[in-house]
Design goal:
Shape: globular
Strand content: under 5%
Radius of gyration: 21 Å
Helix content: over 70%
Distance between the termini: 9 Å
Number of helices: 16
Order of helices and strands: HHHHHHHHHHHHHHHH
Number of strands: 0
Largest sheet: none
């Protein structure tokens, strides 16, 4: 696991504050699922997911651009680059994903009434959209399905498409995102809370993160706004989300709110990402870079996968400890579930995820070497 000051060899850099952001993103999602009171006044889950998507677009694109550079330098072929990328992704994500599904179906948790194939084929988001229902405690798997679909689509584009064409693709994705949220609403195919579950409806978040990676790779990021302008953009996005909380509490959200609310949040999170990359020694970055936040961000995938399933284990465990299934005080109840999730996440990461990831790194490195190639180091945690 990388520490502050070390270098992630898959991207050529390591920004611990981005791991800290991951922790706050997953914490927001936990608030949404653990606290009815908090979620009644503010939609915590959607911003957390959108921040995850922006960060994923940035980090995955940075890895792929580095792989493309090695292909251009004849250090490896595109086929080898694709094999290495998919091998690392599979061993990084699939073992825990399918292990959690196995646990859920073995214990028949709420939501496993839906056929396994939807989740096993990374199509939970299509299940949600098709049936217009959330599959119980497996509802958060829709975001994992979106990520997997993006990982399948994006590598060939980055590795094979000319740079000028890539710019047009990014522009098209920025437009497609809000259109893909608006169109099913306008046609009456979905409700507002499910309008963003399909991959095209998240294209703009991934594209924003990917664009930042492209600008950083070409040393153009420093030209994108001043420090003051970035702060204004972040404050404006925070103010917009505060406005959203007010109108949600009052029950005044417009029908198409999700269309432009998501876009504005995506731009705000992109400004935050750029700010951290350009000003890593700022007060905000130093706060997010606090080592416990960084560590929790590094294990955030496991926290996200397991957190909703804690509703299945939490009450019975608490009953054994206290004799009661629930804390009467909601803040204590939320803290209990967060502590339980973090405990399970730590055990999951060190006992299961990390060994699988290391195996994937070794396999990817072994296949990537050719007689004419300078060995490409294994990537650090992503």
């Amino acid at each position: 696991m990388l520490k502050s000051g070390e270098t992630n060899r898959s991207t050529g850099f390591y920004a611990p504050e981005l791991d800290g952001l991951r922790w706050f993103a997953v914490l927001a999602v936990m608030f949404a699922h653990y606290s009815p009171t908090l979620n009644r006044h503010f939609d915590w889950g959607s911003p957390g997911v959108r921040l995850f998507f922006v960060l994923s677009g940035f980090l995955i694109t940075h890895i792929l651009l580095r792989a493309r550079a090695s292909c251009d330098a004849a250090q490896q072929t595109p086929r080898q680059a694709l094999f290495g990328f998919f091998t690392r992704r599979v061993f990084r994500l699939w073992p825990l994903y399918f292990a959690s599904l196995a646990v859920a179906y073995a214990l028949k948790v709420r939501g496993t009434e839906s056929p396994f194939a939807w989740h096993g084929l990374f199509a939970t988001n299509h299940y949600v959209f098709h049936y217009q229902t959330w599959p119980g405690l497996l509802s958060h798997y829709w975001t994992l399905a979106v990520e997997q679909q993006f990982y399948l689509l994006w590598p060939p584009i980055i590795l094979l498409v000319p740079p000028r064409t890539l710019n047009w693709i990014l522009g098209a994705m920025l437009v497609t995102g809000p259109v893909a949220r608006w169109l099913p609403l306008s046609l009456g195919w979905t409700s507002p809370d499910m309008a963003g579950v399909l991959l095209p409806a998240s294209f703009d978040f991934f594209a924003l993160g990917a664009a930042v990676a492209c600008l950083r790779r070409t040393n153009l990021l420093d030209r994108l706004g001043s420090r003051r302008a970035l702060r204004i953009a972040m404050l404006a996005a925070a103010g917009w989300m505060a406005l959203g909380a007010v109108i949600k509490t009052q029950g005044l959200q417009p029908f198409y709110w999700v269309v432009y609310d998501a876009s504005i949040q995506g731009v705000g999170f992109t400004a935050l990402l750029i700010y951290f990359l350009r000003y890593p020694d700022g007060r905000l970055a130093n706060t997010v870079r606090w080592s416990p936040f960084v560590y929790l961000g590094q294990i955030s995938y496991g926290l996200y996968v397991w957190h909703n399933l804690m509703h299945r284990f939490g009450p019975s465990l608490l009953r054994r400890i206290t004799g009661e299934s629930y804390f009467p005080d909601e803040p204590a109840h939320v803290i209990y579930y967060i502590i339980l999730t973090v405990t399970v996440g730590i055990i999951s990461y060190h006992g299961f995820e990390a060994p699988a990831r290391q195996l994937g790194q070794r396999l990817a490195l072994l296949r990537s070497r050719t007689p004419l190639q300078v060995p490409v180091p294994t990537p650090g945690a992503q």
